[in-house]
Design a protein that fits this description.
Elements: H1 7-10, H2 15-24, E1 38-43, H3 55-68, E2 72-77, H4 90-107, E3 112-117, H5 122-133, E4 137-141, E5 148-150, E6 153-155, H6 159-170, H7 175-185, H8 197-208, H9 223-242, H10 246-249, H11 252-265, H12 270-282, H13 288-295, H14 312-317, H15 320-327, E7 373-377, E8 380-386, E9 397-405, H16 408-414, E10 427-430, H17 451-455, E11 462-465, E12 477-478, E13 499-503, E14 508-511, H18 515-520, H19 525-529, H20 537-545
Parallel strand pairs: 1-2, 1-3, 3-4, 9-10, 10-11, 11-12
Antiparallel strand pairs: 5-6, 7-8, 9-13, 13-14
Bound molecules: FE2/S2 (inorganic) cluster (FES) and magnesium ion.
């Protein structure tokens, strides 16, 4: 075994080594400091991140595994982001969580790390952090909730909130029934059970190779999660011995595998910004266009909400991620290894589909081409993203008049106004919602439809926004428009009444305004006034340094890695 990094703190007879050991001697025996690996458990458990609250129990299982393999486990609570509660958007804090976790891993005497995440931003921030530190690291995704039912019908977290609230607005569901459904939505511990961002990132983390093979997607309440957490603790000790770092696992090939997986499972568009940000930490060449090139011909095989019918518990029962990946294994990079050191594809041979309604065989996909389409045009010079699987067939090619909102408040104030000049062919535009503009790029792109159109039976319209969309939402929504309005993007120049042309097949998003006329336009003062202008603290740092969605919305000074070396002593 190579000398441990932690031995820089603990080895020797001098005063500093004494201090480092003595303060850790609260139950740790002398042999804890004999050069065995110290494994941090970066734990995002928090009562305010209810999706991750059970991770303390998971951490206990990881600890047992670490001990069993001869290591010393150390619980390290890290910044935790609860998607539903944190304002103005958890995405504003993803980079802060990543930075704080990175620095605490580097600053402390640890040799490897087990990353415990679940709720949307937690796994991305942990992977960004671990990639920039470069210590051996492995993820335990906390797993989805069990399926809750309301009036005999399964409820999908998130997706059914949108659906039920639209039903209330359309007058087809009573407010009382809506409120009653609240207690049925969250049946157990765990994260959202739809194919939202949390489910997506757990599965994608495994496709990347960063999870003990077969673990991702195990429901949070399933005993097998604790067994796999125990095994992950053992694995972390082995990974330190072999110095299997994130850079060894996360190659371009593993990112392309993740893109294939993302498409086949019908995963969240948020995975695009997260994977780009993780790749940026490692210096792996990956662009938004890779998602279209590699992902858009992959068949959609998993029939989960929001695009389909089932929920995460069903996917697990039907064979899980490996059964899905086996169907598309010819599209996977056979050289991309996992945390075990063995290639991902080695784990797929024995996988089987147990329910062909939930996981469709390759020959009978839900859609022949899934994935994410990246659009370009004079409205999105650096690209915009759309998920064709969540869009309506009749809107894939569309030309309509823009109805423009400068902010989320402006949209809420006017969207249900009976006098709003809007019809089913209109294109709803919401700007000021990018990384800088909001700040933090919230999940608002799936704007509610005007009440008067809902009452006419309209259920989808083309929407264009520089923000993100919840992974649990659906509709013909063009999002991540780059550059955003607040960063000088042409989205700031759109006026109500302009025609917008969307052509998903041709990958185009254009404003039908002559170039010379557009060149003369400047943003309206009201548009600019709606952009965030924070004066201090994290928000100010964020707005000044955040990059655009097309490269992952990381802070400019956080891309890349610093390794695990710390040059100076604290005493
Ligand atoms: Fe935590 Fe959906 S709110 S995963
Ligand atoms: Mg979300």
């Amino acid at each position: 075994m190579p000398e441990q990094r932690s031995s820089q703190w603990y080895a020797g007879d001098d005063r500093n080594a004494y201090i480092h050991r003595a303060w850790m001697r609260r139950g740790l025996p002398a042999h804890a400091f004999d050069g065995r690996p110290h494994i941090a458990i970066a734990n995002t458990a928090s009562d305010l991140t209810p999706c991750n609250a059970h991770l303390n129990e998971v951490a206990e299982s990881v600890k047992q595994g670490v001990y069993e393999a001869g290591g010393i486990p150390l619980n390290l609570p890290v910044v935790s982001l609860g998607e539903t509660l944190v304002r103005p958007t958890a995405m504003l804090w993803r980079n802060m969580a990543a930075m704080a976790t990175e620095e605490m891993l580097r600053a402390n005497p640890v040799d490897g790390v087990v990353l415990l995440g679940g709720c949307d931003k937690t796994i991305p921030s942990l992977l960004m952090a671990a990639s920039s530190v470069g210590l051996p690291a492995v993820v335990v995704p906390g797993g989805p909730m069990l399926t809750g039912t309301f009036r005999g019908v399964p409820l999908g977290c998130g997706t059914d909130v949108w659906r039920l609230s639209e039903e209330v607005r359309a007058g087809t569901l009573s407010q009382e029934a809506f409120t009653k459904s609240e207690s049925s939505m969250i049946r157990s511990r765990g994260h959202c059970n739809t194919m939202g961002t949390a489910s997506t990132m757990g599965l994608v983390a495994e496709a990347l190779g960063m999870v003990l093979p077969g673990l991702a997607g195990t429901p949070a309440a399933d005993s097998r999660l604790l067994e796999a957490a125990h095994d992950t603790g053992r694995l972390a000790v082995e990974m330190v011995a072999e110095q299997r770092t994130p850079a060894a696992v996360l190659t371009r090939g593993s990112f392309l595998n993740a893109i294939v997986a993302l498409a086949a499972i019908g995963g969240s568009t948020n995975a695009v910004v997260h994977l780009l940000a993780i790749a940026g930490r490692l210096g792996v060449e990956l662009s938004q266009d890779d998602f279209d090139r590699t992902g858009s011909d992959v068949p959609l095989l998993v029939d989960l909400q929001p695009a389909g019918r089932f929920l995460m518990e069903d996917l697990f029962r039907a064979g899980g991620l490996h059964a899905v990946l086996r169907e598309v294994s010819d599209l996977l990079d056979p050289t991309a290894i996992t945390v075990t050191g063995k290639p991902l594809v080695d784990y797929l041979d024995t996988a089987e589909i147990w329910d062909r309604e939930v996981i469709r065989p390759r020959a009978d996909p839900l859609l022949p081409h899934a994935g994410i389409a990246v659009l370009y045009g004079n409205l999105a010079p650096d690209g915009a993203v759309v998920k064709p699987a969540a869009a309506s067939e009749h809107l894939l090619q569309h030309r309509g008049r823009a109805v423009v909102f400068d902010s989320i408040e402006d949209m809420h104030a006017r969207i249900d106004d009976p006098d709003l000049d809007v019809d089913a062919d209109s294109v709803l535009v919401l700007r000021g919602c990018g990384p800088k503009g909001y700040p933090g790029m919230p999940e608002v792109a799936n704007m509610p439809l005007p009440r008067k159109l809902l009452q006419q039976g309209v259920r989808d319209m083309v929407r264009v926004c520089d923000g993100r969309m919840s992974g649990t939402a659906y509709g013909t929504v063009v999002l991540h428009v780059s550059p955003e309005a607040a960063a000088g993007g042409p989205l700031a120049l759109v006026r109500t009444g302009d025609f917008i042309v969307l052509d998903i097949e041709a990958r185009r998003l254009d404003l039908d305004v002559p170039g010379d006329e557009l060149a003369l336009r400047t943003p309206d003062p009201a548009t600019v006034a709606a952009f965030a202008n924070p004066q201090r603290g994290w928000e100010r740092l964020y707005v000044r340094t955040v990059q655009q969605a097309n490269t992952g919305a990381d802070l400019d000074f956080l891309t890349g890695a610093s390794g695990s070396d710390v040059s100076r002593e604290s005493h």
